[in-house]
Here is the input.
Amino acid sequence: MEPILKTENLWKVFRAGRLDVSALRGVDVDVFPGEFVSVMGPSGCGKSTLLHVIGGLSQATRGRVLLDGNDLAALGDAGRTLLRRHKVGFVFQRFNLLPTLSARGNIALAQHIHGDGFDPHRFDVVTRMLGLTDRLHHRPSELSGGEQQRVAIARAIINEPKIVLADEPTGNLDTKNSDNVLGLLRQLNKDLGQTIVMITHNPEAAAYGNRVLHMRDGLVVDGASAN
Amino acid sequence: MIRHMILRNVMYRPVRTCITIIAVAVEVTLVLIVVGLTSGMLSDTAKRIEGIGADIMVQPPSASIFMAFSGAPMPIEIGQRLAQLKNVRAVAPVLLQFNSTNGLDIVYGIDPQTFHQVSGGFIFHDGHDLQNANDILVDDWYAKARKVKVGQTLHILGHDFHVAGIVEHGKGARLFVLMSTLQELSGARDKASVFFIRCVHPEQTTKVIGEISQLLPHYEVRPLRDYLSLMTSSNLPGLQTFIRSMIMLAAGIGFLVILLSMYTTIIERTREIGVLKSLGASRGYIVRVILSETTALCLAGIVLGFAMSYGVRWLFLSAFPTLSIAIAPSWLLRAAAIAVIGGWVGASYPAWIASRKDPVEALAYE
Here is the structure.
């Protein structure tokens, strides 16, 4: 089976004043369709940078990122924008919902940007699965943290992306809501075969994945490829 | 969806939205009132000149169509020569004088007999015609605006006049005195500023103009029926520049307010722009969202501006009944276009900045 995501000798170098800081130093990772990969590592090890690069939010300095057969390194801003629109769903630690829109509006916005118009069937399936049917008319400020993150997950999967990239999705949640959100992510992975890459500090959260990838100093030190 | 998002965005910051809408409304109102005031006053003046009922007017060489600008360089005997032309029924010499005492007005010095022959005479609301050297006639609008009554004294041109009558408006000026009195006051003895001519038959106007042009080469001889079309801001030196300056000023206000408003909006919404980018929104999509929001604010401002313009017009006309403010439909469209285009120009820089934001930096924005 071909990996849905493959990185080869991936480097990301930031310029900090006169210094070059390497956040990624030749990362090689394979993620296969239907996998739920947790990425762990200490702060500053390059986890978020890896997520941004493989999600097409920023460009690699060197190396290759193949996402569903598309080389992100060879794409310009417009090409990466299209790839994010059609193949990637993001879930962020701080939920990042638009405060002016209701839960329904936040989810529908992703469908609108995707360009296929509002799909009521898909919308119903996703919101029911995430237990949001009673909360759709509420704004983010009227929702609990757990509910906001469920809306963010709904927004991420509404367009059936090839991969969901979750950056510390439980970082702002209490234990109960964390378990709930992680359970939902595992359910999405098992029931829908959704490929997920999740960054976390928490070993208990990482255990929800079926593979844990450890990073240190910009390198993957363990779990780079499925056994 | 964009419409829904825009509606939510503008409602989310009501103070900012209101200030922006009011600024656009002020821009629209400024344009409409300045243009309406100038064109209204010009049109009103033209209608009053046409209301005299003459067919032709004769002015000295190189005289402006704005008669009060031309002084009184014509000998009054010219009138007798004009009256001898075959198809001329009556000739009325008129001396014009600007008055700046108690306001800005044009005073007509007339010979009642010839003026009535040309104009058909005044319609009196009160009082009687000019009889004595110190008599003055005022029109009904002037009387209403200044609360003037027959019998009272009116200080005009540094002289105390006795209000002899109040006449129906629309006969050239709002103030009429005897020509001999005005000649004395202005030091223009035996001079006239303009001759109004009535032909025996109006259809002979062109023929009579030809005869006058032969009799008085180089003099300005114009048919009165064309006068209204000539009384435009483009024919008054400097007025067009003034109007353009005021429009630029108004558009500048709208541009700056929209620029500032949308710039603060995109700074405030940096994280949201990052979210849109993470969802796959293109640069064009983000520009479209911002320009659409600008358009919505401008449209609201335009509607409010139209209402404000009519409100300001009503206030002005209540306070100064002799003013004329003409809000033409074509200028409603132009003012709207100026507001929208100014808004788009003002929003284009913030929209460009927003569209080029780095998504990772935008998402990390606190």
Notes: The first strand of chain A starts at residue 5 and ends at 16.
